[in-house]
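Input structure tokens:
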């Protein structure tokens, strides 16, 4: 039974906190990205955690040289429980983030293949290799697409690591198409389908019920 992660990509702090309050009983973790953090500051993570006491992951898709990655990780992981990084910049850049995370007992999640159509152009051709690197480095989890279930399955088989999988809902991915690929260590990410709905609580509840079947 995979878990549910809310992608909270809103711009307004008050809206974000309102949504968290509504859905907190039905989500297992929350993912925040640049839209919310740049508009509200990293302190928003502390406020979210006070509201719901759930794991908060920063989806910054960090992709720089090791020295810069290290600095980003040190700042981010003072607040967040984990951080998402790109692997295509090389093992040394990922390891720089891992070194920081290990000292703080935080998680590093590495992107293999993203969920949007453009990922097919450049990321997909190297995604299997990225999955092998993730396995070698023993990152805490990987990102692989729910919009392409056959790719999700293959990447998960290669990496043999927990997966967080985006694309369900607004991007067209369906829980029914991926549920048999996932296990209790994996997360299904849902964003706009929840936070843009008229009733985020009910939509989150519906997704949680589907995952619990």
């Amino acid at each position: 039974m995979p878990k549910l992660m809310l992608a909270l990509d809103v711009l307004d702090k008050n809206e974000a906190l309102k949504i968290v309050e509504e859905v907190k009983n039905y989500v297992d973790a929350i993912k925040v990205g640049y839209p919310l953090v740049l508009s509200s500051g990293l302190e928003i993570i502390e406020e979210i955690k006070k509201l719901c006491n759930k794991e908060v992951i920063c989806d910054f898709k960090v992709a720089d040289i090791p020295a810069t990655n290290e600095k980003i990780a040190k700042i981010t992981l003072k607040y967040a429980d984990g951080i998402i990084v790109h692997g295509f910049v090389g093992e040394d850049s990922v390891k720089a983030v891992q070194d920081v995370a290990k000292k703080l007992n935080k998680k590093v999640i590495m992107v293999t293949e993203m969920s949007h159509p453009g990922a097919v152009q450049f990321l997909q051709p190297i995604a299997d290799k990225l999955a092998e690197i993730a396995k070698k480095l023993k990152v805490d989890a990987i990102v692989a697409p729910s919009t392409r279930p056959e790719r999700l399955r293959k990447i998960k088989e290669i990496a043999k690591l927990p997966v967080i999988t985006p694309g369900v809902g607004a991007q067209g991915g369906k829980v029914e198409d991926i549920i048999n690929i996932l296990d209790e260590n994996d997360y299904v990410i849902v964003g706009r389908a929840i936070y843009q709905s008229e009733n985020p609580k009910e939509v989150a509840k519906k997704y949680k019920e589907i995952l619990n079947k």
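The mean pLDDT is 97. The first helix runs from residue 13 to 23.
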